[in-house]
Amino acid sequence: MSRSTRIERYRNIGIMAHIDAGKTTLTERVLFFTGRIHATGEVHDGTTELDWLPQEKKRGITITSAATTAFWTPTHGRAAGTPHRVNILDTPGHVDFTIEVERSLRVLDGAVAVFDASQGVEPQSEAVWRQADRYGVPRIAFLNKMDKVGADFDMSVTSIEERLGARPVAVQLPLGEGPEFRGLVDLVRMRAVLFEGEEGRYLDDQPVPPEAREQAELYRQRLIEAAADVDAGVLEKFVEGRLDEVTAEDLERALRAGTLSRTLVPVLCGSAFKKKGVQMLLDAIVNYLPAPSDLPSVEGCVPGKEERVSRPASDAGPPAALAFKLMNDKAVGSIVFLRVYSGTLRAGTVLLNPVTGKRERVGRLMFMHANRREEVAEVYAGDICAALGLKGVRTGDTLSDPEAPVVLESLGVMEPVVQLAVEARSPAELTKLEEGLHRLAAEDPSLRVGVDPESGQVLLSGMGELHLEVVVDRLLTEYGVEARVGQPKVAYRDTLRRKVRQEYRHVRQTGGPGQYAHVVLDVGPAPRGAGLVFVDDTRGGSIPKELVPAIQ
Ligand code: GDP
């Protein structure tokens, strides 16, 4: 396969949703139908393959974004018969973890937005949608739970339009809703799919049932109207009233262009739980969402210079990759998830982390499948992979060729909003607490850890109560530290101001806040908990504007 063909057959996608919309179930089904797992675990049994952390099983929610590789060969559409590689990043739905969502959005090329068809757009779907807008992520929508009593296709489509300000375009029509949900009309081809049982079997390419014909005609007309807005060929046929001449190929071409330019959001529906409509969704992912090569080149800057550079999604040229997720694994140690933007990255080579100025040897490279890991010698532009052996890399860092250093645009880190004080129960546990917090903060840029110089308390700042609760949980389950938790003794704002002051001093010492300054802040030793040293990190000169007067 030529290099350009290979990258055109990649889809790096995320599945984003309000909690409980069925994202985990859908991801499971996608992995089931892509042949990577053969027994689907239900979320409530705590057996889903993507959930890695024990507390995820306990809570039944997905917190981390695990990247999984699968393969799909569409039955219909422009890519019919051609195998594609679909890398799926599972994104958390709880609003406390929006930073995790942002992180995955940064490295995705497209997304499936999942909605509960009985609810339509819910508040958290709005938050996630806006984040995806900010990162310019092309999307398709999947109205899940069509089997549920109260499922309402029209209401859900309208809510996408009204509440998200998007232009949803139904490309399917459900045959029946709730317990009556028995099939779909593919409006592009004007053929029906009839489900057979709950094991994902269906009769393809059926005539549209007579009772659904009128409604299907109406929806197809709307589809043609939307397509005419983005495609000159369809527009011509539309204005001349030659609607019968609009072909499936015409509509597919227009839908792809409209999705890529983010003017349209194709809407599909189904029931992840009952394995209905998932294969058609996979076809749509491949047919409508972009390959890495469809998107503009990634931008970055040359460290120490004003110069901005762009790196095309091509295997040739110097490698550049972004670390978007860190995980600790009992068996293999620290795992760094990388999105390779350009070049070829080989196991065993030394790369530069221009953010820290350190060189790092890439030990091993692997693809994570749902049920196994696949070790590979090299990875290419467009790949999402896991790297082992990297020591000083933090979330948001770039790894690049030492001869052609680049710092890729990093991840937006929001200001923490909630703070908690933690204390070790004994001096012996203090070291473990330090180590645990150090690692957790390296994984998660939205977690800040510091010591209040006056009270000596270790303070955790995060995105929400659940976020910090999970941190405390992980201290216990992964590091065996039962931390005592309380409210901070000082006002959060004061602590932040003090911390910023120290960071600022440090930036000054290291020669001014560069656009990608990486600030390591040593706030210890603290009066209590002597020797507690913590590292904080500021990227993009992110000293909050409102605090600038306070630190001058
Ligand atoms: P997440 O929070 O978005 O990951 O949602 P989950 O996949 O954990 O699903 C939330 C709940 O909805 C679980 O109890 C699922 O079994 C249920 N669920 C998921 N998909 C469907 C569906 O298509 N139909 C119905 N009726 N229930 C579903």
TrEMBL record:
Keyword Nucleotide-binding appears in the UniProt entry: yes
Localization of this protein: Cytoplasm
Similarity comment: family membership: Belongs to the TRAFAC class translation factor GTPase superfamily. Classic translation factor GTPase family. EF-G/EF-2 subfamily.
Gene that produces this protein: fusA
Gene Ontology cellular component list: cytoplasm
Tr-type G domain boundaries: 8-293
Function: Catalyzes the GTP-dependent ribosomal translocation step during translation elongation. During this step, the ribosome changes from the pre-translocational (PRE) to the post-translocational (POST) state as the newly formed A-site-bound peptidyl-tRNA and P-site-bound deacylated tRNA move to the P and E sites, respectively. Catalyzes the coordinated movement of the two tRNA molecules, the mRNA and conformational changes in the ribosome.
Tagged with keyword Ligase: no
Organism per entry: Pyxidicoccus fallax
Residues of the full protein shown: 1 to 552 of 701
Species lineage: Bacteria, Pseudomonadati, Myxococcota, Myxococcia, Myxococcales
Binding site for GTP: 17-24, 90-94, 144-147
Principal location: cytoplasm
GO terms, biological process: ribosome disassembly
Protein keywords: Cytoplasm, Elongation factor, GTP-binding, Nucleotide-binding, Protein biosynthesis
Name of the featured protein: Elongation factor G
GO molecular function, one term: GTPase activity
